[in-house]
Amino acid sequence: MNRLALLALVGTIALASCNQAPDVSGKSVTKSFTDMKLAGYTAPSGTAKYVDLNSGDRVTTLTVKGLLPNKAYLAHYHAMGTASTDPCKSGGAVVPANTMIGMTETTDANGNLTIKGLQATAALKDAKYINVHEASALANVPVCAPL
Q: How far is 35 from 42, CA to CA, in rounded Å?
């Protein structure tokens, strides 16, 4: 039993010694969200920030205010669709397919939201916009950020 505890301690120390800041290959990019004029919303706004790491991953942080309070939302990267020349109105497919940015998150009592995620950069090569959806009604998109 003591041997297992010692192995767990050594493993924890070894992992902690490797815990270094990620090696960034590019600068941080910030895009502003566009209000999609969805009924029931009053001027939602915010930013989509992302940075690509040398590991081949992209760290994405979405910060939105002006959403409905205490409501669940989710977000996706999308490819350009064919319905419009405006990326946010084009109806493009989710890239990579069926993948969210982070997890479904719930706004606070003031309608503020933060979603963070990690995606494979190569899988996002066709991404043209990011949008935030109501989790209970995916057609309800209050904000979008063209890339």
A: 9
